[in-house]
Amino acid sequence: MPVVGKYKWEFEIPGSGKQTSVHEFFPGHIEYSMTGPAHTTTYTQNLVSFDPGEQRCITLGSGGDKEGVYFLMFFRDISDGQVTIYKRKCTTREEAESFSVPAADAAEDHGWNVYTRV
Question: I want to staple 74 with a disulfide (CB 3.0 to 4.6 A). Which of 28, 84, 86, 98 is the partner?
Answer without folding.
Answer: 86
